[in-house]
Specification:
alpha/beta; Rossmann fold; 3 domains; 40% helix; thiamine pyrophosphate binding; Thiamin_PyroP_enz_TPP-bd_dom
Length: 543
């Protein structure tokens, strides 16, 4: 068995049936091995797209997402989405081809310290140096990716190890899954005491808690503990428009449980402005570094730091009947999350479709579509989409604040769930990053619907410059009115539509769905600031 066959057959045994990739010299042995293993390669137009798609695959399925890139420029093209995956807590395995071990230090073609580059972006980054190290390295990487807190891992595979004989005729025996280490008993007792007696508790979860495969766990905890589990996955933190006016209610909580939610900028670094002055805080996290950070930032306000999987710990906690004050408080939390009363409503330009009207038209389509999946890219328009559109399964640009991945996410979602109606909303700026992946969608028969809100500018940056420097010092914001994004989709073999108003958009959505093709709808849009639903100061986070 060759090294390449060992890697691919092991992935197949782990349940991997799809790999996102862009071909290159150093990974050709792995491509060849995929044929015999029956693993599908989704061949993209840019390496970054492969990593974004692997990220979306893991978010949609809850499984390991796999991306495969070639050496040096290939792996470095995938770094930005690797950062996004780390912030989204997505378990992905990034495999990269590498120069041969036998040529180390000799100036080999595309020789590069890949591990040194990816280590800060991953839970684990390895480069085996012998054929005997291949299987243990892959096994360790996959285990790390799937262990709490989930995240990306990287395996750099030297070319000579891929073409070398391993001496194995069969795969090594699969490792036994490790039992989760139970949380500290005394800590569990204190957790129960704090949660069971709190009158106004708030539970904040990290991005993992937002995933569709976690829905049953969230609902079980909400029922058992009589409180809402609120996942946070936006760089706007408590000012995330999809959280309504939650930020205004947060200071009234008497207990805040951070269930795998890192204490960071999205929570004002734990300051009293965000979390209030009186609430006790519980941090449950598998990463001791996150518990140390919470202790350092909160001091005496940290009532408990408990290391472990937060969902396992909370599920194992002995719950008692909630205090009488709990149900009315939960109703207030739910009301705040639903609140869509804007405090910064702007008048749309005459004749232009406002972002709220656009999103409400898309939402009406989603409400009647079979098995809808919503993808929201970043930017100002992305915030409108996150506020006014919803679906049982949703992917957003995530904690990284990156923009431009929307089309990639949507394609992977459609491949993962072929019967789903996948709609992605993005601005005209973000559309420019990966519009050519519509070609991938056509080749893979992934009939997504991409809705582009076209306000002819980078609106987030436009608003920042207007606010900070004034209208006479705008630079680098305008986009061409001659750009016809829908025609690009048609030219690549998909379907393209233009819309000027809500009726035109509704018609285009129906035509796109009936076309059976990847479709792009170019919608003329009035550029407005992202909606704000609380009295909090608007975030300076542009993306």
């Amino acid at each position: 068995m060759l090294g390449s066959q060992l890697i691919i057959r092991t992935l197949h045994r782990l349940g991997v049936k799809t790999i996102f990739s862009l071909s290159g010299n150093q990974i050709m042995p792995l491509y060849d091995a995929c044929i015999d293993a029956g693993i599908r390669i989704i061949h993209v137009r840019h390496e970054a797209a492969a990593v974004f798609m692997a990220d979306a695959w893991s978010q949609i399925t809850g499984e390991l997402g796999v991306a495969m890139l070639t050496a040096a420029p290939g792996i470095t093209n995938g770094l930005a989405p690797l950062y996004s995956a780390s912030q989204a807590e997505s378990p992905i395995l990034l495999i990269s081809g590498d120069s041969s071990v036998a040529e180390d230090g000799m100036g080999a073609f595309q020789e590069l310290d890949q591990v040194g580059i990816t280590r800060p972006l991953t839970k684990l980054s390895l480069r085996p140096r012998t054929a005997q190290e291949l299987y243990p390295a892959l096994e360790s990487a996959v285990a790390q990716a799937l262990a709490p807190r989930r995240g990306p891992v990287h395996l750099a595979l030297p070319f000579d190890l891929m073409t070398a004989e391993t001496g194995l005729a069969e795969l090594p025996a699969a490792a036994q899954s490790r039992e989760a280490v139970p949380a500290d008993a005394a800590g569990m007792e204190k957790l129960a005491a704090l949660v069971n007696t709190a009158q106004h508790p708030m539970m904040l979860a990290g991005p993992t808690g937002a995933r569709a495969h976690m829905r049953a766990v969230r609902e079980m905890l909400e029922e058992a503990l009589a409180m809402r589990v609120i996942p946070m996955e936006s760089p706007r933190g408590l000012k995330d428009p999809s959280l309504g006016s939650l930020a205004a209610l947060m200071p009234q909580a008497d207990l805040i449980v951070l269930a795998g939610k890192s204490l960071d900028f999205t929570l004002g670094f734990g300051g009293t402005g965000a979390l209030g002055k009186t609430a006790q805080v519980v941090a449950i996290d598998p990463d001791p570094a996150m518990l140390e950070r919470a202790s350092r930032l909160l001091g005496e306000r940290l009532a408990l730091a408990l290391q472990g999987d937060p969902y396992a710990a909370l599920s194992a906690m002995r719950a008692t009947p909630a205090p009488a004050e709990r149900p009315p408080w939960r109703a207030r939390v739910d009301e705040a999350l639903r609140n869509r009363t804007t405090l910064n409503a702007a008048a749309s330009a005459a004749g232009a479709l406002g972002p709220r009207a656009l999103c409400e038209t898309v939402q009406a389509f989603l409400a009647s579509a079979p098995n809808p999946i919503l993808v929201c890219d970043g930017g100002e328009f992305g915030q409108w989409a996150q506020a006014y559109c919803q679906a049982p399964v949703r992917i957003i640009n995530g904690m990284s604040g990156a923009i431009g991945a929307g089309i990639c996410y949507a394609i992977a979602a459609k491949i993962a769930q072929p019967d789903a109606t996948v709609v992605v909303l993005m601005g005209d700026g973000t559309a420019g990053f990966h519009l050519m992946e519509l070609d991938t969608a056509v080749r893979e028969q992934a009939a997504i619907i991409a809705v582009i809100g076209n306000d002819l500018r980078w609106n987030a940056e436009h608003l920042i410059q207007m606010r900070t420097y004034g209208p006479n010092r705008l630079i680098g914001c305008e986009l061409a009115p001659t750009a016809r994004y829908h025609d690009v989709a048609a030219a690549l073999g998909g379907a393209g539509f233009a819309a000027q108003d809500s009726d035109g958009l509704a018609t285009a959505l129906g035509m796109a769905a009936n076309s059976g093709l990847p479709a792009c709808i170019n919608v003329s849009l009035a550029g407005e600031p992202a909606p704000v639903f609380s009295a909090s100061t608007q975030s300076a986070t542009g993306h």
